[in-house]
Structures are given as structure tokens and as C-alpha cells.
Amino acid sequence: MQNREYYIPDDIEEALSLKAEGGGEAAFLSGGTHINWAPVKTNYTTLIDLKKVVPSTVESTRGWIRIGARITLQELADNPRVPEALREGALFVVSRQVRNVATLGGNIAARRTDSNLIPALIALKALIQLGKGDEISVEEWVGSRREDLILQILIPEKGGYVHTRRVSRSANAYPVICAAVSLDREPRIVLGGSYPAGTRLSRVEEALKSQPDLARDDLEALVRSEADPPEDIQGSREFKTYLTAVTVADMVEQCRKGGA
Q1: 206-237: per-residue pLDDT in tens?
Q2: Which is more confident, 64 or 171?
Q3: Range of the structural domain that residue 19 is part of
Q4: CATH number of the domain that 250 lies in?
Q5: What's the 3-state SS for the chain?
């Protein structure tokens, strides 16, 4: 068994210092459901527990909903101040035992393609407040290789309706598609699952921006022309492309109804 050093820093500065000293062999630890997940096979020799450093509260200030990164997925699902898309995304993790431990910050940091929350956060135009005080969008974070300390997630209070969905062969199966759709002033179609986390369908977004009432058949055809899922054990490229087109079209219709 690999030996690991375990620290519980008292403040942000100590946590950042420990990470800098450990470099790539050090990892921040919150719920631990990803680091301790067997398929990940991490080689970290230093673990930095964030329980004294990162908040888990939900607050509304100056037009933003501020969610502490250490909030568990169950707390996220139970909090009425959290946007509905995030509450639903948290519940897509069907095991309550996992939801009681896994955290929002850890879910974002892992950048896993099966994350139900990353597409929703990108559709919500969420930002991340990092340990050094700077901010970065969730979309930028997912596309980077940064390993900064995540303190809070910031979501605009006046954001539009976001619909989220998970398509899988069973409740516990790896998702074929994770998706979130927003038709606000800047439409966003965000995918995961078979797609790299945070994949955007930019041509579809532009079409919906210029033609808000784009017909379903035209929308499905446009999605099929842009979607490029890999072929694997979950299905052929043709099957996944068809499934993506139908799913996105359904979600756009739901957004047009305003979640009714």
C-alpha cells in the first residue's frame, strides 16, 4: 500500500503552501469520492484536507448566488436557494450515500465527463472563485489543466431557465449523454457523457440565437451535423448522434415552455 501524508491546514495560505510544496504529487481532499475511486488509480503522496478552509454555505450577495465548494451533493439538492438545474443534476447521482459525501468543488475539479453538474454550471454561466482570489468561468476551468484551490461557485441570480438531462441505460450506468440547455439571450447547448466535459454545440447555439423558433426537424438536423460522439461499448456513432439530436430537441422544447 502506498504511504500518504495527510494534512489539515487551518487557513487558505497554509493549504496553498502545502500544494505548492507537493506539486503534482499533492492533491486537495474534500469528499474523497473521486480520489478514492478505484478506476482513477491516483498516485498522490500528499493529501490536503479542506474541511477547515473551504466553505459549504449558500449565500446571495450583490446579484450572485455564492455556493461554498465543500457543499455536498445532497446539501445542494436539498437547498431551495440553489438553481433548479443544479439540484436536479445532483440527484442524477442516484446513491444517497455518495451524495452525502461527494462535494460540488470536487465534482468540478475532477473534470469527469460523466459529471451532471458541469454542463448545468456552464449553461448557468457560473464562475469559480479560486484560492488566490481570482475568478474563472467553469467552462474555462474545464478546458484548462489548472489544479487551483476552488473556494466558491458564483451563479448569476437573474439567470434564465436551464434544463438538464441525463441519458443512460440504467440509473447507475455511465451516461451516454449528460446535457444542459439554456435559451437565454445567449443560448447554450452543453454536453458531457460520451462527449468531453463541457462540449458546446456552437453552430446550434448560433442558429437558435438568430432563429429562436427554429423548427424541430431543422434543429435535429443541425445537431446531427455538429455532434461527433465516439463509437464505443455504449453505442455506435450513428446511434449516439441520433440520441443527441432527439435529446437536445426535447430539451429546447422544454426550455421554450419555460420549464412548465
Answers
A1: 999 999 999 999 999 999 999 999 999 889 99
A2: 64
A3: 5-48
A4: 3.30.390.50
A5: CCCCEEECCCCHHHHHHHHHHHHHHEEEECCCCCCCCHHHCCCCCEEEECCCCCCCCEEEECCEEEEECCCEHHHHHHCCCCCHHHHHHHHCCCCHHHHCCCEHHHHHHHCCCCCCHHHHHHHCCCEEEECCCCEEEHHHHHCCCCCCCEEEEEEECCCCCEEEEEECCCCCCCCCEEEEEECCCCCEEEEEECCCCCEECHHHHHHHHHCCCCCHHHHHHHHHHHCCCCCECCECHHHHHHHHHHHHHHHHHHHHCCCC
